[in-house]
Specification:
By secondary structure, the chain is of the alpha/beta class. It has 15 helices and 17 strands. It folds into three domains: about 130 residues, Rossmann fold; about 180 residues, Dihydrodipicolinate Reductase, domain 2, CATH 3.30.360.10; about 80 residues, 2-Layer Sandwich (Alpha-Beta Plaits). It binds L-homoserine.
Length: about 450
């Protein structure tokens, strides 16, 4: 088979860019043997051309001049790995307008500006491939778009942030403190340049916006998604939840609810320890999807880091060069907001079970006081835990789990409970997510 030469331009020579360069340079022969495409890294653009990187580019490839890439008409594919939204958006738009197809891992940009970017791509008869934007090396976008094309997707539950999963796993399994676990994730290169995006749940929300848009076939905006991060999670809550049979994960959830509505949320979630997602540890990601025909399918793999993400980027480069991406992109039927406004559930109407920790004074009748508040809001307790010993100010932690109830009932009850002088500090409230399991 005659080989086709494919020149690739790369903007952003950071962690993922380095991985992409390594793959293209070191695996060009095996990629050519498999696909008939000889990938050539023709131009790599970065503002920092001096920093040492663990890959040696051919002479003359690295430049700080983006115009060099833009004006080279032999480069048909431009890879944007700059991250962020401002410069990256201009880079993608310019590459599309210069007649190049775009490959990107930039979830923040797509979550905010997909519509504008897609329109520019369509106007220029180009495509954007973005497999690497969600769940690192897991080909989840292609799975939803093609592998599950025959299904109505009814729900997805995803662990889509490697940093958060690494932190929660280390807090659970190694008894590390939050800050210790975060520092380790940063050292391993999973975390974003600003890790606030990871731990606040923002990065997971970006990925959920992209995945839910494709799964539910309409434009999902970031403001549609309820987001709560893991910053306030303590080892104690992980331990108490563990004693009650639960494991803590940051889940990105997209669900069809009644009357064709959609629930979209990212929040710390207690799931039962025997759930398959509970066994996903470290920087691994997993997405469990429920389809009308297939039932439950789960995709698992490395969700962050240099080479797993590079794997998805290079797969997209190959798909673009083979012409597959142009076809799937042209069939990406995301109804813009001016055509279809999805009905998104408000978090206050969510029906869930809850884990609630109350630090209460160790005195007679205290539990009767706050359990009356729960009863007044029609919240029924399903489990309870109290250890002997004292917290701050002679308080003792009492943990309860509830039967299903509306979020607004819990919010109102907690507000009222805080007024009791027998309770110390803010009660901790974590949703318990009962993920259906598809067993034979
Ligand atoms: N910071 C992200 C994560 C990288 O931890 O998952 C991959 O998107």
């Amino acid at each position: 088979m005659a080989e086709k030469n494919v020149k690739v331009g790369l903007v952003g020579f950071g962690t993922i860019g380095t991985g992409v360069a390594k793959l293209i340079l070191e695996d060009a022969d095996s990629i050519a043997a498999k696909t008939g495409l000889r990938l050539e890294l023709a131009c790599v653009v970065d503002t920092d051309t001096l920093a040492p990187r663990p890959v040696k580019l051919p002479d003359g490839v690295l430049t700080d001049d983006f115009n060099k890439l833009l004006k080279d008409n032999s480069i048909k594919i431009g890879v944007e790995l700059v991250g962020g939204t401002d410069a990256a958006k201009q880079i993608q738009l310019k590459m599309l307008e210069a007649g190049k197809d775009v490959v990107t891992a930039n979830k923040a940009l797509l979550a905010e500006y997909a519509n504008e970017l897609y329109k520019t791509a369509q106007a220029n008869k180009r495509c954007i491939a973005f497999e690497a934007s969600c769940a690192g090396g897991i080909p989840i976008i292609s799975a939803i778009r093609t592998g599950l094309a025959a299904n109505n997707i009814t729900a997805m539950y995803g662990i889509v942030n490697g940093t958060c999963n690494y932190i929660l796993s280390n807090m659970t399994l190694k008894n590390e403190d939050f800050s210790e676990a975060l520092a380790a994730a940063q050292k391993k290169g999973f975390a974003e340049a600003d890790p606030t995006l990871d731990i606040s749940g923002g990065d997971s929300a970006h990925k959920l916006a992209i995945l839910a848009s494709i799964a539910f076939g309409c434009e999902i905006k970031l403001e549609d998604i309820f987001v709560e991060g893991i910053e306030a999670i303590s080892k104690d809550d992980i331990r108490y939840g563990g004693e009650m049979g639960y494991c803590l994960k940051l889940l990105a959830i997209g669900q069809r609810t009644e009357n064709n509505r959609i629930s979209l949320r990212v929040h710390p979630s207690f799931i039962t320890k025997d759930n398959r997602l509970a066994k996903v540890d470290g920087s691994f990601n997993a997405v469990s999807i429920f389809g009308s025909a297939v039932g439950q399918v789960m995709y698992y793999g490395r969700g962050a880091g240099m080479m797993p993400t590079a794997s998805a980027v290079v797969a997209d480069i190959i798909d673009v060069a083979l012409g597959n991406s142009a076809t799937t992109f042209s069939h990406l039927n995301l109804k813009p907001r001016n055509e279809v406004v999805p009905l998104i559930d408000k978090i206050s109407t969510l029906v869930s079970r809850f884990y609630i920790k109350i630090m209460c004074k160790d005195q007679p009748g205290v539990i009767a006081q706050w359990s009356k508040v729960l009863a007044d809001h029609r919240i029924s307790i399903s489990g309870a835990l109290q250890h002997e010993g004292y917290g701050p100010d002679n308080t003792v932690p009492v943990v309860i789990t509830t039967h299903p109830t509306q979020q607004k009932n819990v919010t109102a009850a907690l507000k009222e409970m805080k007024k009791l002088d027998t309770i110390g500090g803010e009660p901790v409230c974590i949703r318990i997510v009962d993920i259906p399991e598809d067993y034979d």
